[in-house]
Amino acid sequence: MEILKSIYEVAWFILLVAAGVAALIGYLYSHFKFYSRSWFFPAVLAVFPALALAVFGGLLGGYAFKLWLYFLAAEAAIAAFFRYAVRGRHTVPYLLLAPAFVGLALLLVYPFVFEVYLSFHDLKLTTIMMWKNTGALPFVGISQYVKVFTTSPLSEVTFWALLLRTLVWTFSNVFFHVLGGFILALMLNNQLRFKGFYRTLLVIPWAMPQVVAVLAMRGEFHATNGFVNIVISKLLGIFPFLSHLGVAPVQWLTDYPLLTCTLINIWLGIPFMMVVILGGLQSISSSYYDAADIDGASYFQKLRYITLPLVRPVMMPAVTLGTVWTFNNINVIYLVTGQAGGTEQADILVSALYKAAFTYNRYSYSAAFAIVVFAMLFFFSVFYLKSFDAAKDER
Amino acid sequence: MATVQFKKIVKKFGDNLVLNGVDVDIKDHEFVVIVGPSGCGKTTLLRMLAGLEEISDGEIFIDDLLVNELHPSKREIAMVFQDYALYPHMTVEENMNFALRLRKMPKAEINTRVTEAANILQLNKFLKRMPKQLSGGQRQRVAIGRAIVRKPKVFLFDEPLSNLDAKLREEMRVEIAKLYQRLNATIIYVTHDQVEAMTLAGRIVIMNHGIVQQVGSPIEVYRKPANLFVAGFIGSPTMNLLPGRLSVVDGTAVFSNESLTLPVPAFVLPQKEALDGREVILGVRPDDVLVERPGGEKCSGKIEGVLEVCELLGHRENLYLKVGGARLLATVEAFFNRSPGSAVSLCFNYQNMHVFDKTTERRISE
Amino acid sequence: MKKKMSAAAKRQLLKSILLHTGLVLFAAACVYPLLRIFSVSLRPGDKLVSMDLSIIPAGATFVSYTKLLGDTMFLRWLWNSLLITLATSFIGVSLASTAAYAFSRFRFPGKKVGMILLLSSQMIPAGMLILPLFLMIMKLKLMNTYLGMIIAYSVSSLPFSIWILKGYYDTIPRSLEEAALVDGTSQVGAFWRIILPLSTPALSIAFLFNFTTAWNEYLVARVVLFSSKQYTWTLGLFELQGQYITQWGMFAAGSMLVTIPVLCVFLYSSKWLISGLTLGSVKG
Fold it and tell me: Are A156 and A84 part of one and the same domain?
């Protein structure tokens, strides 16, 4: 019975979305089609605000008249835009695009704008009920931004420490992803028996659901029952001299949480790089290597002068993406350290902003924090793309 | 079947003028080939007729009906595309009856039409296959079959043979010629290959740079090319073109340049007086350069030249000659037993000699 | 001559031995955690916590599985995940398929800007949008519901799906649609009858991508869903794993049940998925 109810609920929602899309198409189509008719302005101004009010007005009661004025003004602007700017051109592509872009506007752009709004106001545990009921929030100017740099987002770590940690985290992860991926790809790119089989096994960390993979790996780093420490203690049993070198089972999760997260994420991320690089390697024509053989190049010379430069164009976008992904990776860190009372020694910027919002309920603070992080990422990307373009021009 | 009229057709892509005032009338049951080098606007013209390209200016009529604003499907045309455009996810049969199904035609009617077309094109065995299981020639047939079942007013062919190898191309050319005799339909056929144009066309439209250069039967455009472009484009191997100057000496026109001096008879250039001192280009087809043969009445006097290279083609032989500083190509019967470097004498056949004005590039001879 | 050949053959043999050894080691590192989960899921209740490293433990039993299915709401969690995921993927792919077509086939003002917006939206940290989405869902009174989850997920993979589909549409010759137009369809008809059927590989990739993204999502679910009846499996497993000692076996059993089908689908479709992903990343 419950199952039927859940199906009904979801199906109903999909129908609602479909109806919304149809309404949107109809609305736009009428503007594209009849923009030049004499009755265009009166008709759309009469019909659409009234419809909008009928749909939304019921929910809002008292606001109704004020809202209707907004609708009227908006519709007048839209109608004028269609009559004097669009003039019925490009109907088909815009209709095809409209649903996706309205979706993105509502669920990507609007949240973003809302986040900016939040960052200049004060939404926290004590004000959230007020906001829920009235929609009003105290305006606090840039003080949230000041707090981002002066106070600690979590219980003890400062912004600058987090930033440093994030850079270390991103760099070490991407470095080992590329290194590991490259080595594995080079190994696989040989005439080899069981090649497909190896490849299949090697992509398993990527193919596994990340939650399962991370939680399982987290278990393996457990102090007494985890695979890692068991192996270390067994090794110590066989080679006692290792203990003089400082090798000993450690409390991974409490003493070295960032290292643990990094190891887990490296394990997770290598397969993607391997696959991308392998694709690049396989697209290199063997005639280059034949030519280099005739010229007498050694293995490493071939690697340096043929493989690397030719794989570069495939690798660079993947490395860029990988950098952004790693920088934004909350999953691994939160799944490893996110339990109640979990450590904060592994948090990077993005996981700190998540925890600031949902563990400490400092919503506006978290929003300002997010804007700062976004700005950093944005300038990095712009700078990076510029230098990428410049490099392209040189070639 | 139907007539087609292009009236002052203009096509612009941004600032780029692709077609500049094309006027062509195509009669009922006519096989018209539009030919020209790539980029001359011929395919654009065809696509405008099909309704796949917007018309910047001018009017197109099918059966005296203005079709400028008509959707492609309402124009009652069928088109064979250069890459065949067979729907990869449909069988041959489904490809052929797609248009009929869209028109909700009764099943029985659809079947008879498809069977008929398949018979004509020998496709019966392949009806249940997918396009990718067919060879290039078979795909070509399916594309044509898809057009035939529609019984359209006008057939449009957009370089249909250019993706085939040389041998198949010849076969399909004959097939299309036969098909035309059988269907007796209005066909507009676009190609860059002048051999296809010459062999298939009832009338040829030669285009260059978005302008119609000449319209006429294959014989007309071959015998009397209207300008230098047509002269150079039609005919294989290409015509010999010799720049020089005309003068009138003792009442006869004389063509001269550094390499040779040649009287031009009156039946080639009737209004010679007006042409005194004009810069011209003389055109002679390789076939009309007679080497080591007694010239008749209608031939020029002997000209001395040197044989540079011979190319044996089988029954014919190409001779590359040098006359003074000018190079000439002559095509003669095989076998021309002379070694390169030997001196030969040749003459031009006046009956097929062409004179073009150098500045306007127009034909000035008869 | 002969001696030289054998030296080369020896080197070849050595190389292949080294390669195989290396690959076996790496492959083991990739597979071993999965095997460990499998092993734990088979352990009898009293030996859940042990230093045993063997794959099939002594006294292997399916108790953990029966307990998981009987004592917890694991099936319900799977069902929740499935519903949410299917709905999101369906909405996402439908919206992406038409938008990608517009980008692939038409020229219109704003095309370039639109493409750039799509790409740059990939730069917004996902973690950043969780907060406003959470607040919106709260305001819409959709906390702890399927709808809230579907709304939060539905556009997250949209830019990427559009990108993949556009790339695929670009490879379909235009003449196919033109032939369809001449044959008598409208532009939309040509899309529906010709382009969509031909794009099933790309549509499946996009669907799969949407599916896996939503299926494996944890962070949004964490804040939107709070009653264990509404949990997705990711939340459920996290809960089980959190209470480490007692439910470790059930966690392992659940992990196996979730991972096996996902692995099968991934490995089966990996060829297309990878080519799609690399296509997207290479062009992006």
Answer: no
- B94-144 pLDDT, tens digit per residue, is 999 999 999 999 999 999 999 999 999 999 999 999 998 998 889 999 999
Residue A343 lies in a domain: yes
In tens, the pLDDT along C103-150 reads 999 989 889 888 888 877 877 777 888 999 999 898 888 899 999 999
CA distance C88 to C83: 9
What is the per-residue pLDDT across C211-247, written as a single tens digit (0 to 9) for each?
888 998 999 998 999 888 889 999 988 888 765 555 7
Tell whether A201 and A342 lie within a shared domain: yes
Question: Which of B43, B44, B52, B149 to substitute to test the interface with C, most C CBs within 10 Å?
Answer: B52
Q: How far does C92 lie from chain A, in Å, by closest CA?
A: 8
Whether A214 and C237 have beta carbons less than 8 Å apart is answered as: no
Domain B240-357 sits in CATH at 2.40.50.140
Over range B248-261, report the average pLDDT.
85
Residue-level pLDDT at C281 = 43
Query: How confident is the model over A321-366, as pLDDT tens digits?
Result: 888 889 988 889 988 887 766 778 888 989 888 888 888 888 999 9
| pLDDT at position B147 | 92
Looking at residue B277, what is its pLDDT? 84
C72-283 falls under which CATH superfamily?
Answer: MetI-like (1.10.3720.10)
Residue A6 CA to residue A31 CA, distance in Å, equals 38
Which of A89, A106, A125 delimits the end of a domain?
A: A89
Alpha-carbon gap: C104 to the closest alpha carbon of chain B (Å) = 17
Closest by CA position to B10, among listed B54, B72, B51:
B54
> C12, C18, C24, C30: which to substitute to probe chain A, counting the most A Cβ within 10 Å?
C30
Q: Which residues of chain A have pLDDT under 50?
A: 395
- Final residue in a domain of this structure, among A89, A110, A129: A89
Query: Would A372 be classed as within a structural domain?
Result: no
To the nearest whole Å, the CA of C205 is away from the closest chain A CA by 14
Alpha-carbon dihedral angle through residues A317, A318, A319, A322, given to the nearest 10 degrees? 120
Q: Nearest chain C Cα to A328, which residue?
A: C125
What b/e sequence results for A310-337 when a residue is b if at least 16 CB atoms lie within 10 Å of its CB, and e otherwise? Answer: bbeebbebbbbbbbbbbbbbbbbbbbbb
Same domain, A256 and A327: yes
The enclosing domain of A164 has a CATH number of 1.10.3720.10
C184/B contact by beta carbon, under 8 A = yes
The DSSP code for C62 is S
Nearest neighbour of B73 by CB, restricted to C173, C182, C194: C182
Same domain, A172 and A311: yes
Domain count for chain A:
2
pLDDT of residue C280: 46
Sequential DSSP letters for A203-263: THHHHS-HHHHHHHHHHHT-TTTSHHHHHHHHHHHH-GGGGGGT-----HHHHSHHHHHHH
- The answer to whether C70 contacts chain B (CB < 8 Å) is no
Are B3 and B25 in contact by the 8 Å Cβ rule? The answer is yes
Q: Convert the pLDDT of each residue in B136-187 to its tens digit.
A: 889 999 999 999 998 899 999 999 998 888 888 998 999 999 999 988 889 9
CATH 1.10.3720.10 domain extents, chain C: 72-283
ipTM of this predicted structure = 0.85
Residue A138 lies in a domain: no
Chain C, window 121-180: residues with a beta carbon less than 8 angstroms from a chain B beta carbon: 173, 175-176, 178-180
Angle of the C126-139 helix axis to the A349-358 helix axis, nearest 10:
20
- Report the topology of domain B4-233: Rossmann fold (3.40.50)
Residue span of the structural domain in which A30 resides? 2-89
Q: Which two tokens stand for residue A345?
A: 């020694």
Low-confidence residues of chain C: pLDDT under 70: 1-5, 46-53, 242-246, 270-284
Nearest CB to B73: which of C176, C183, C197? C183
Query: Is A169 found in the same domain as A73?
Result: no
Helix (H) or strand (E) holding B79: strand B77-80
Chain C interface test: which of A94, A203, A208 (most C C-beta within 10 Å): A208
